[in-house]
Specification:
It is a single chain. By secondary structure, the protein is α/β, with parallel strands linked by helices. It has one domain: Vaccinia Virus protein VP39 (Rossmann fold), CATH 3.40.50.150. About 35% of the residues lie in helices and about 20% in strands. Strand 4, helix 5 and strand 5 form a beta-alpha-beta unit. The chain starts with 8 loop residues before the first helix and ends with a strand. It binds S-adenosylmethionine.
Length: about 250
């Protein structure tokens, strides 16, 4: 199916991820590189939640487009009384359920739900996480897709999400491919954002944190400390392959 034909994105992603659920983790997170990327990216999510005092038992957190539980299954280990995971397809949530250790069964609550119509009342969460999702939709659609997360967050609530970076200074080949995809072929999905587009893409959220990730694998030879330095340094954080972004309501 071409990008232009993907008119009904919900149906398309419902079909795609229902089919992919049983192999999703093996394709993404279980290789050596995948598991390293997952632990680094998750750590940045939790750094932002921690910075805004959201890692506390009473805080209510929702993991949106939770999938097989990459973020949610780690969130539950932090002592929360309740964490909510929602996704469009039950097949992805089923994989997450199958990995959930017995002691967290009453903590993690699963909902099959479209993120544009979340079945929760206004201001019912302190924080939200949205991992590996936004690149699936056109940049112009970010406000429409994050609007309902904004609604269910408390005032000053924080959403942590990931955005593919259009500037990929450390990997010129990928930067050229992204540029070609977006500007020459005019493809809207998979979307990549320039850093200066984030403010508009997420309004009315305020962008309060940007951490750079996805530096070329070869840099791991310098150690995790070096990667964390690149991720946070104002000089280099804008040039990784992806951002972990903190947004405040
Ligand atoms: C690439 S996976 C990311 C899963 C997980 N967050 C992770 O980081 O591994 C994208 C997920 O978004 C879900 N999804 C797609 N459209 C959605 C929507 N409108 N509302 C909720 N979830 C959606 C898919 O079912 C899929 O599980």
């Amino acid at each position: 199916m071409s990008t232009e034909q993907k008119k009904d994105l919900n149906q398309y992603y419902l079909d795609t991820y229902t089919k992919e659920a049983s192999v999703y983790d093996q394709r993404r997170w279980t290789s050596k590189g995948g598991s390293k990327a997952k632990s680094l990216r998750n750590a940045y999510f939790f750094d932002i939640l921690r910075k805004y005092n959201l890692i506390q038992p009473e805080k209510k957190i929702i993991d949106v487009a939770s999938g097989t539980g990459r973020v949610a299954l780690e969130l539950v280990t932090f002592g929360y009384k309740k964490v909510v995971a929602c996704d469009l397809t039950n097949a992805m949530l089923d994989v997450s359920r199958s990995k959930l250790p017995a002691q967290y069964k009453d903590i993690l609550e699963y909902h099959v739900a479209d993120m544009k119509k979340l079945p929760f009342s206004d201001a019912s969460f302190d924080g939200a996480t949205l991992g590996a999702f936004l690149y699936l939709i056109p940049l112009e659609e970010y406000p429409a897709y994050t609007k309902d997360i904004h609604r269910v967050l408390q005032k000053d609530g924080i959403l942590v999400c990931e955005v593919m970076n259009q500037l990929h200074f450390f990997n010129p080949f990928k930067a050229v491919m992204k540029f070609w995809h977006r500007h020459v072929r005019g493809k809207k999905i998979k979307s990549h954002a320039y850093p200066w587009e984030l403010k508009k893409a997420f309004a009315p959220f305020e962008v309060v944190d940007i951490i750079g990730t996805d530096f070329p694998a070869v840099m791991t030879i310098f150690g995790d400390g070096f990667l964390r330095f690149l991720s946070r340094s104002p000089l280099t954080k804008y040039f990784g392959g992806r951002f972990v972004v903190g947004l405040k309501k």
